[in-house]
Structures
1.
Amino acid sequence: MQVSEAEWTDIEKNIAKTAFDQAYKREIEALLKQVQQEVCSLQELNDLWQLHDFLSARRHEIEGKYNYQYSALLFVFAGLVKDGWLHLQELEGLGKDKLSKVAALARM
Amino acid sequence: MQVSEAEWTDIEKNIAKTAFDQAYKREIEALLKQVQQEVCSLQELNDLWQLHDFLSARRHEIEGKYNYQYSALLFVFAGLVKDGWLHLQELEGLGKDKLSKVAALARM
């Protein structure tokens, strides 16, 4: 299922980068908004440590997930589609084989 | 410099517990307020990870610091006085030896 960089055309690379950045932007904006909302309801120290635990988990997840390497990109896109940060239509222009792989992985 | 529990009278224990709780309340309230202010100015992911680093450090510090054991209490009070979370006057009623130890440690 891995696709090396050589198998991406320049046009596909542009589409991929735009989609990747868009998903990242969406997820980060949602996270910032969520943190701002949660902070409003902080009442006591335990709430703050829960926020800290939440940030630890999200940081670990996000730093691992947004890995822009062509060999992993179809998996990354599939995860982003599955989680709602990216729409399949935003990948239109990629080769049909790539699109169908992303769609199949996203359904798993 | 350590003072075992046997060396604390009941009156001193009450004064100590009240002062300890008061300092804790002050520090936690200040921390919650600080986090709420910092979250207002979150612009991007790096700001959020800076907040996460800050919370990691504060959690480690606070969980270590608020240790209510009589043998350690004079050191704890000295640190709280030094950092401004407790006033020496709030410890009035403790034996003079204890007060002077706290005052001396707080100046170090």
2.
Amino acid sequence: MQVAEVDPIRTKRYVEETFRLLQAKPGVEDILIMNHSGVPVKTSMDRQESLQYACLYDNLKEKCQAFLTKMEPAQTLTFLRVRTKYHEVLITPDAKITVLVVQNAKDSFINIKG
Amino acid sequence: MQVAEVDPIRTKRYVEETFRLLQAKPGVEDILIMNHSGVPVKTSMDRQESLQYACLYDNLKEKCQAFLTKMEPAQTLTFLRVRTKYHEVLITPDAKITVLVVQNAKDSFINIKG
């Protein structure tokens, strides 16, 4: 028997609390929370930057979904981690909101000079 | 002084050894290694599936790069992790080859019935 997936409850208070908890984490540089249509609802960035990020992410999510549908049609994206030398973007979409966090990811063991 | 980034050496033997090491890891379901033009050079999948994956990944990488260039132009993708309920795709591109691993990611703490 397949457990029915109930849509999560995401009140304004939930969004504020998520934002507060994330902001308190060490290394977090930016946070962007979007609603299910991809519109920023809470952000640490300025308005312009938030909209740019939201739009870029929307394309990325679309390509990810196409990529996942190739594997098994039932797959939906639950977590996405994009890593560069200095930053890491963590993206957690669910049925109601998408949380995007940009964190500082300098490897302590890579001795980066200059 | 910025440390010059030397292109890594990726011989056929390096590719074979990487493939062997990954295959021995628990939970690994599929492995695809592509050259810098995105052509599969070593894979556990059949030919058709490898080409499909390689093509889908190419789109995904492009969108990721666009996403990262928004942050700071100097950013290049070093690692990508795409997670669904049952699978996780780990992608490690470098200057010469890209290694793509599909692994089983059933959370032991999520009790999935049916």
